[in-house]
Amino acid sequence: MSPSTLLLAAALVLSGADVKLPGLGVTLHEQPGDPKRVSAYTTGNSSYLRAGGYFAGQRSYNDLAVSPGGAFVAAIPRKFAKGYDRVAIVNRATGRVSKIRTVKAPMVAGTPYWSPDGRKVVLTVSKSDGRGGGWRSVGFVVVDVAAKRARLVKVSGAYHDALFQWSPDGRRVVSDYWDGVRFYLTDGRVAWTLWRTGGLVGGESAFSPDGRRMATWCPKKHKATLCTWNPYNGKLDKKVKVPAVASYGWWDREHLIAVGHHGKGYASVVIDLDGKPVRPLATISRTAWRDYDLYLSYTRR
Questions:
Q1: DSSP, res 286
Q2: Which run of H or of E encompasses 21?
């Protein structure tokens, strides 16, 4: 399949409303019954949050994530307060903001992931290696939204680039672990490890909505781009051959969101598990993708 085919096959079924992101050369192609839509996006160090058909810049925050259903936003303030990093929980109906301490400098906590039930947030905790080699993951923070309480969990031997997210049942957290994936109890103990699966895809969750599949970047031996697995026993489910440069996770239980080349730019597209494009979700300019480091945050409605 040529890179441009990723969008062209899907373009035949395009219908619905278009939403343009100003100044970027990005157009979202949306339909009323979509199970997910773009709730926020980032370009470099700038974050934008959706309000209806518009996106407002968030000058006070870096990372942000909208909860399933859209009721809350978890956002990371740009500045520490009295030596502590924090997470802001925004109630979108009332506008009320609760800022909760997470970790003390020199640690930082970011990249929020919501639990499937929208009651908890997990943040990845990182610390500088002190030798100019960048940041290293050292654990995670679990935030109880209702109680407005955060708990730091240090993980011995965490993978240096680990990003922690929730398991499908919301009882464990999950991250890349070398060539595989590791599941942890929320006290930091190892639950189980799946070896040689490849790293987790991006997006709201690497797990399908029914919790039966986990999506990763395939190990080279499988000669495919994306792989899906049984998350409990590590059994290979599907090898998805598609010319993708990124993935925003699952669209529904039978489809993924892939980003691939389209013409001189890129496109975000719904694909089935055979790698066939179903419909386009966004057309993305080369400048937005490469120069502005665009990331589209899709949230389940």
A1: H
A2: strand 17-21
The whole-angstrom separation of Cα 59 and Cα 69 is 24
Q: What pLDDT was estimated at residue 97?
A: 97
DSSP calls for 227-262: EEE-TTT--EEEEE---EEEEEEEEETTEEEEEEEE
Q: HSE on the CB side for 246, CA within 13 Å? A: 16
**pTM for the predicted model, two decimal places:** 0.93
| Overall residue count recorded for the chain in this entry | 301
Q: Is 57 exposed, middle or buried, given 0-12, 13-18 or 19+ CB atoms closer than 10 A?
A: exposed
Report DSSP state, residue 221: G
Closest CA to 55 of 294, 260, 279, 259: 294
Q: Write out pLDDT tens, residues 212-262.
A: 999 999 999 999 999 999 999 999 999 999 999 999 999 999 999 999 999
Token digits of residue 88:
């802001």
What secondary structure letter does DSSP report for 200? Answer: B
Please give the Cα distance from 34 to 52 (Å, whole number).
15
What DSSP string describes 63-128? EEEEPTTSSEEEEEESS-BTTEEEEEEEETTT--EEEEEEEETT-EEEEEEE-TTSSEEEEEEEEE
pLDDT of residue 109: 98
Under-70 pLDDT residues of the chain:
1-16, 133
| End-to-end Cα spacing for the chain | 32
Beta bridge partners of 267: 260, 283
